Each structure stands twice: as structure tokens, then as C-alpha cells.
Amino acid sequence: AQSVAQPEDQVNVAEGNPLTVKCTYSVSGNPYLFWYVQYPNRGLQFLLKYITGDNLVKGSYGFEAEFNKSQTSFHLKKPSALVSDSALYFCAVRDIDDYKLSFGAGTTVTVRA
Amino acid sequence: EAGVAQSPRYKIIEKRQSVAFWCNPISGHATLYWYQQILGQGPKLLIQFQNNGVVDDSQLPKDRFSAERLKGVDSTLKIQPAKLEDSAVYLCASSFQTGPTYEQYFGPGTRLTVT
């Protein structure tokens, strides 16, 4: 069975500072990894995905994520956070042999001005 | 390109009543998903359709939940009778195909409150 852990319920950073949202995963085979963001009263929006290839994946709104197979991690990063990045972030994983997309519990990011 | 549409956006019902949610996926997307998102948790897959066939409904409480996608486009999720623990946001998503590399696009969700 596949699973995702987001060890931090909340992340608080000042605008302009680097932002990191942590994610670790567990799958039986090769993982397909995704990050989504959810703004209040809106559905999830796709940010980026790792399928294969370069371990550093670039996505929407200046976000990037680094796949680390030895640490089974897929942390989301942004070099300089904006107040508008304040939202709920979800990491998700799919096993190559499983159709299901398993989500973590989410991390609330607050960027203060 | 229009996104995934869902209605209603909000619904309040009493326990033991029935409720239905509607979803219209992105045009051309063969795969449709229904998720349940309880407050403070990540979305949990309830059912997945490929065209009008069910791919996975292993986590759908079939004694009270049902879903259909008769013409392979729109879908309806029904709860009958509702319980208090069904209070959640119900998200519909679609993807071009079922393969694990395809990202899913989500609708705004329907927030259900059961009193």
C-alpha cells in the first residue's frame, strides 16, 4: 500500500524568505509524485509532478520540488515566498501499479508580510 | 479551456435525508474521480470512472453511496441516507486518461453539512 506523510501541519515564513514544505512517501514500486495547492473555498490546483528523469522538478508559480529516492522524500520549495502563497498544500503519490492517488494530510502555509 | 464544474457548491441536509452532487469534467477527459475531503484531512478517493465504466470503487460505502456516469461525460454522486459523518467536501476531478502520469484537475467541490 502507498502512503504519504507531511510531517508539518503548519509552516510560517516571512515574505521574501525561502519556503519549504516537507513530504515523505512509501510505495512498493516506482513512485509518481505530485504537489497540489488548495486556496480557501476552491478545489485543488496542480503545481508539479515527478515521473522520471531529473530529480529537480519545476512547476507553477515559481515552485519546485526535489525528488530524493534514498530518503523517500519530495519536498516542495520556493526561493522567495509571497503573501499570496498562503494556502493549504498537499503532497500525493501514485504507485506505478495502482490507479489511486494517495494524499497527505496537508500543510498550511502562512506567509506574513 | 473550461475547468471541472460541480454543483451545488453548498448543501445542508438533515441526517437520513438524501442528497445528490453533479460533476461535469473537462471536455475530452476520459477519467473521472470522486473524492471525499473531511476537514483537516487530505482527499480520499471514493470512486474512479474510465469513460462510463467503474475502475475502482473499493472505498465507496456502497450501502449508502452510489455514483454513475451513464454517457461517459457528466457524473452524479448520491448519498442515501446521509449520516453525520458524511459532512465533508466532495471533490470531483478529471484526467485525460487513467495512467499514473496524468495529473488530475479538480473542481471547486461541494461542501456538505449533515445536521
Give the CA-based shape of chain B: globular
Helix content of chain B: under 10%
Q: Provide the β-strand percentage band of chain A.
A: over 45%
Strand tally of chain B, please? 11
Which strand-content bin applies to the residues of chain B? over 45%
Low-confidence stretches of chain B: none
* Total DSSP E strands of chain A: 12
Decide which structural class fits the backbone of chain A.
Answer: mainly beta
* Major β-sheet annotation of chain B: 7 strands, mixed
Q: Level of helix content of chain A?
A: under 10%
State the separation between the terminal residues of chain B, measured CA to CA: 37 Å
Radius of gyration of chain B: 13 Å
> Alpha-carbon distance between the termini of chain A?
41 Å
Mean pLDDT of chain B: 93
Q: What's the order of the H and E elements of chain B?
A: EEEEEEEEEEE
Q: Oligomerization state of this entry?
A: heterodimer
Biggest chain pair contact, residues each? Answer: A-B, 26 and 23 residues
Basic shape of chain A: globular
Low-confidence stretches of chain A: none
How many strands, which pairing sense, and closed or not: the largest β-sheet of chain A?
6 strands, mixed
Can you give a write-up of this model?
The complex is a heterodimer of chains A (113) and B (115). Chain A has strands at residues 3-5, 10-14, 19-21, 24-26, 31-38, 44-50, 56-58, 64-68, 73-78, 87-95, 102-103, 107-112. Chain A has no helices and twelve strands. With 113 residues, chain A is mainly β. Chain A is globular. In chain A, the strands form three sheets. In chain A, strands 2, 5, 6, 10, 11 and 12 form a six-stranded mixed beta sheet that branches. Chain B has 115 residues and is mostly beta strands. Chain B has no helices and eleven strands. The mean pLDDT of chain B is 93.
Quick overview of this protein structure:
Chain A has 113 residues and is mainly β. Helices cover 0% and strands 53% of the residues of chain A.
